[in-house]
Amino acid sequence: MNAQAKQQAADFNIFDLSAPHAKWKELREDQPVFQDLETGYWIVTRHADIKAIFDDWNTFSSENAQAPMRPMCDAGKQIMKDGGFTVYSGLSARVPPDHTRIRKLAQSAFGPRRFKAIQPQIEAIIDRHLSKISAQGECDFFSEVAYDVPALVLFALMGIPDKDVPKVKDWAASRALLTWGDLSDEEQLPLAQKMVDYWKYCRDLVAARKEVPGDDFPTDMVQAQAEGADITDEEIAGLMYSVLFAGHETTTTLMSNAVITLMSNRDAWDAICADPSLIPAATEEILRFEPSIVSWRRRAKVNTEIGGVPIPEGANILLVMGSGNRDDAVFENAETFDIERKNARNHLSFGYGIHFCIGFQLAKMEFGIMLRELTARFPNMAMKPGQQIEYLNNISFRVPNQVMVDLGLEKKQ
Ligand code: HEM
Q: Over the stretch 97-130, which tens digit does the pLDDT of each residue have?
């Protein structure tokens, strides 16, 4: 084994996403593949290595993508067992051939047709939220706008009433902490019960659509099954469990981190305000520069190597896309935010290969409308000074705890 690879990187804490970019840069340059001794994970930080691993699902399986970083304590396991919690993953931790079979069906129900049809509803949801904050003059953009909007959009697609938003958002946040966080046994227990409730909700949803069909994603899946598609009720409920998490949490984070990034890159913000046709390119650059999911997991199925470093069979691997996205080997002046960058879309923020994010079109569409409306209504928006933004303690989701903004309305005329 490469001596350099064996060495623990100094000051590297896999769960600390508060200010990771400087450390990632150092790692890309000095230790692009090494084993974190605290967790045993192999950390991979260069773009080419990450992309190659995503692309080789035979050697690097996603089976550990949803594994809890800290295994559930015995009392928590009992709560989940008693509550009939059986789901592990809807898609992201499934492997072929199951993954191929279920993804094909999910994709057919989740295509651009549904996304296009929902555009007017997205505009109305965003309008409602921005009108509300406009009357206030300032707000916490994270909790008052970005938190709810993607969930309301997704719920419309899933045919779920708006009143359930707080409940599902809470379950999703709990799932993030249980799977990707660093919780003590005591902290795990209440969340284990929430996972039981969340799973029951997904199963009840499938049962309800079998009784009374709607015009939504679960109904599409149930109907496909009735027409002979090879998918079980449990697998459809598993998809709900997946999408009711993946389909809003990440977009909430993208919107929030975008505001933080654009407020500190005023030229880019002003350029978009003056010319909204820059929004698609700016969206790619924001995804590259501050991705919602900064890292994702794979497991080596055989003895192999990454970037010349030997990797043993069974090794857990952390692909740090947030680092690969700032790799100078691919992006010129990669640490600079530049909405005119020509190859920003080569970012790895939606993954790559057979698990590439199924909701990327929806996420970009929602985000594009949000940015268009924000720049049109609040061109003088600014971050409230003196705030200390903290980020969720976990390995994958770079979620800020607040984004306090002054909408700058008095300066408008
Ligand atoms: C900014 C928003 C989003 C980001 C950054 C994001 C990112 C990702 C990433 C990194 C993966 C793993 C890819 C891999 O393993 O190669 C993924 C998978 C997935 N995403 Fe997203 N996502 C976003 C929005 C959404 C939305 C809106 C939905 C659904 C409506 C969604 C549904 C999924 C699903 C179901 C998978 C698993 C796909 C599979 O394993 O085949 N995502 N996403």
A: 999 999 999 998 777 778 888 999 999 999 999 9
Task: Tell how far the Cα of 202 is from the centroid of ligand 1, in angstroms.
Answer: 18
Q: Which CATH architecture has domain 3-411?
A: Orthogonal Bundle (1.10)
* Residue 298 parent element (H or E): strand 296-300
Write out the H or E segment, with its range, that includes residue 300: strand 296-300
Q: Are 300 and 282 in contact (CB under 8 A)?
A: no
Q: DSSP character for 411?
A: G
Below-70 pLDDT ranges, the chain: 1-10, 411-413
**How far is the centre of ligand 1, averaged over its atoms, from the C-alpha of 293 (Å)?**
9
Structure tokens at 46: 């260069």
Q: Which protein residue's CA is at the shortest distance from atom 3 of ligand 1?
A: 250
Q: State residue 51's pLDDT score.
A: 98
Q: Which residue has the tokens 């199925």?
A: 301
Q: Which residues line ligand 1 (CB under 6 A)?
A: 54, 62, 91-92, 103, 154, 242-243, 246-247, 250-251, 254, 291-293, 296, 349-353, 355-359, 362-363
Q: Could you count the other beta carbons within 10 Å of the beta carbon of residue 51?
A: 19
Output the pLDDT for position 110: 78
- The pLDDT of residue 169: 86
Name the nearest CA neighbour of 404 among 228, 141, 175.
141
Q: Which of 285, 151, 157 is nearest to 218 (CA)?
A: 157
**Phi then psi for 299, rounded to 5 degrees?**
-130, 135
CB neighbours of 338 closer than 8 A, spacing ≥ 6? 268, 285, 344
Q: Is the distance from CB of 84 to CB of 199 less than 8 angstroms? A: yes
Taking the centre of ligand 1 as the mean of its atom positions, its distance from the CA of residue 251, in whole angstroms, is: 10
What letter would DSSP give residue 346? G
State the amino acid at position 127 in one-letter form: D
How far is 8 from 101, CA to CA, in rounded Å? 40
Strand order of the sheet with strand 138-140? Answer: 138-140, 404-406, 382-383
Name, in order, each residue with C-beta under 8 angstroms of 210's C-beta and a sequence gap of 6 or more. 222, 233
